[in-house]
C-alpha cells in the first residue's frame, strides 16, 4: 500500500506541474480570468496532496471541478456555434480544442483527487484496496495521456508552424 500512495503522490506532482505550466501560459489569453483560476486550483489540489487540511483541499477541488465543467460546456458551445473544430477533434492548433482538452484533464484529475480524499487509510479491506487501485491506475492513465498529448502538441506545433488563437 505504501507504493500505491507513492505512485499516487508522484502522479499528483506530475499533474500539478502540468497544471502550473498551463496556468502560467494563460496570462496572454483573452479570457485568462477563467482559465488561470482553473489551472491554479488544479495545481494546488495536486501539489498539496494530503499535506494540508483535507477539508480545504476538498473545497478547492470541488471549486475547480465545477469551474472545469462550466468551462468545458462553454468551449463546447462556442465550438458548436462557430463550427470551429468539432466535438471529437484533437487538432491542438485550435484554441477551443486546447481549452476543451485542458478542462477535461482538470475535471478528471479533480474527480480522482476527490475520490482519493474520501479513501480511508485502512488498507486491509478488499473494497478499499480495489478502490485504491482504481484511483491509482486512473491517475497514472491520466498522467500518461496528458503528457503524451503535450508532447504530441509540441511536435505538431513545431512541424505545422502555426497555432490558432
Distance between the termini: 45 Å
Order of helices and strands: HHHHH
The beta-strand count equals 0
Global shape: globular
Contiguous low-pLDDT stretches (5 residues minimum) are none
Largest sheet, in brief, is: none
**Global Rg:** 17 Å
Structural class: mainly alpha
Task: Provide the domain count.
Answer: 1
The assembly state of the depicted protein chains is single chain
Which labels suit this protein?
165 residues, mainly alpha, 5 helices, globular
List the helices and strands and how they pair.
Elements: H1 2-24, H2 32-47, H3 54-82, H4 95-117, H5 126-160
Structure characterization notes:
The radius of gyration is 17 Å and the shape is globular. Helix 2 (32-47) packs parallel to helix 4 and helix 3 (54-82) packs antiparallel against helix 4. The chain has helices spanning 2-24, 32-47, 54-82, 95-117, 126-160. The chain is an all-alpha fold. The relative contact order is 0.14. The protein contains five helices and no strands. The chain has one domain.
Summarize the structure.
The protein has about 160 residues and is mainly alpha-helical. The chain has one domain. It is built from five helices and no strands.
